[in-house]
Amino acid sequence: SIPLQHGAHRSGNRTDADMARWRSLRFGQFVHWGLYAIAGGEWNGKIYNGAAEWIRSWKEMPTAVYDQLYKQFNPVNYHPEQWAQQAKDMGAGYMIITTKHHDGFCLWPSKYTRYTVAASPYKKDIIGPMVEAYNKKGIDVYLYFSIIDWNHPDWRTSLKTPADSAAYKRFKVFVKNQLTELLVKYPTVKGFWFDGTWDDSWKNDGAFSDELEQYLQKLHPGLIIGSRLRADERGARHFDSNNHLMGDYEQGWERKLPEQPADVHGNDWEGVMTIPENQWGYHAHWLGHIKSSNELIEMLVKSTSLGGNFVLNFGPKADGTFRSEEVQRMQEIGNWMKVNGSAVYGASEAGLGKPDWGYYTRRGDSVFMVVFNVPVSGNLRVKLPAKTTLAEASASGQPVTPELIGKNEYFIPVGNAPRHAPFVILLQTSRAA
Ligand SMILES: C#C[C@@H]1N[C@@H](C)[C@@H](O)[C@H]1O
């Protein structure tokens, strides 16, 4: 293997309590909120076909105009306790909030730049009340932080001249100051969700990203930071040049999910997902396919069945309210989680393969069959490993009688209840030593 100073410093998953909690929560809420919500994916009567939070980079949007939008930021309908309650009702165990996206606008009153909520008509801190409201509902908070900062004069995508290097050196001090400020102001947060780390300026400075991660861990022991923050000294990201995962979990699953265990190599991982095709910030016109609650529930269960977390994104409007399609999905998913959440919370891969009818998840000796595709036979085939015996099966607390059809192989009848949503059959098993 290649000798590395700034590659992975640990092989295998973290085994501490903070990481075990992150792993047990399984389901998170992502919130992308900022000045881009004011534009809402359109400008001057034209619709931006890109992701709404990238509208500043659209040729039809003059950057000078975008950079004045903060003078309109005044979310009069922002009620963080309502945000937290609806997230609780959805069944989210943690939430990730954009403190600063690529545009550089800070939702907290940072003392390291004027480009913050303090300069807006709203004036007040957005992040503090949000962290407090979510924590009060028992929901952990993670802070999204973009390294890319289109507003900061010292940000560079690449370093071409000595002046670039001097500027970027100042920028790295600014980044470290802001991250320190966030941890000091909001000490109950559980981790950072870094983004915007793909430019050469950052990729070619693996030493800084490594030292920064170690500095943050020292400042806030137990902090959870995904693989997107760091590069090794050869510019490798997520996995170092020896193919070892850097950071505490694989953070590359954005709008896509692994298909099989081999795709995640036994690492902790997290998938983040949009309801429309590709919109994180508020866009007034959702184009393309809009995922239904059942599709999103299937992604959540699929993630659990592959030992990962699933985070669903929401883009509140500029005034602080959520669009109806998002409220509807939070309620529908929440209704399902209230009945079936035990198949997700604290559960992980079952090691029983991928059945046609849906997904297996497991917690201890409880095996959950989460059914999405009822076979025309009405029988769900279950094959258990030799040393696993099936003690009993139940659906919604009612016993189900398995039919033994072969060695450790059963048909589980689905019964004739109407099926308009995924349902769970619980198998109580015992495994011989
Ligand atoms: C590309 C990109 C960014 N990564 C997602 C999590 C959103 O923040 C999007 O703007």
Notes on the structure:
It contains 10 helices and 19 strands. The protein starts with 16 loop residues before the first helix and ends with a strand. By secondary structure, it is of the alpha/beta class. It has an 8-stranded parallel β-sheet, with helices on both faces. A hairpin with a 2-residue loop joins strand 15 and strand 16. The site of (2S,3S,4R,5S)-2-ethynyl-5-methylpyrrolidine-3,4-diol has 8 residues, from loops.
Distance between the termini: 37 Å
What small-molecule ligands were found?
(2S,3S,4R,5S)-2-ethynyl-5-methylpyrrolidine-3,4-diol
What is the CA-atom radius of gyration, in angstroms?
A: 23 Å
Order of helices and strands: HEHEEHHEHEHEHHEEEHEHEEEEEEEEE
Layout of helices and strands:
Layout: H1 17-25, E1 27-31, H2 36-39, E2 42-43, E3 46-47, H3 63-66, H4 80-90, E4 94-100, H5 127-136, E5 140-146, H6 162-185, E6 191-195, H7 200-203, H8 206-219, E7 224-225, E8 250-254, E9 269-273, H9 293-305, E10 308-314, H10 324-340, E11 348-349, E12 358-363, E13 366-371, E14 379-383, E15 388-395, E16 398-400, E17 403-406, E18 409-413, E19 423-431
Parallel strand pairs: 1-4, 1-10, 4-5, 5-6, 6-7, 8-9, 9-10
Antiparallel strand pairs: 2-3, 11-12, 12-13, 13-19, 14-18, 15-16, 15-19, 17-18
Helix pairs in contact: 4-5, 4-10, 6-8, 9-10
The protein binds (2S,3S,4R,5S)-2-ethynyl-5-methylpyrrolidine-3,4-diol.
(2S,3S,4R,5S)-2-ethynyl-5-methylpyrrolidine-3,4-diol binds at residues 32, 51, 53-54, 195, 254, 272, 280.
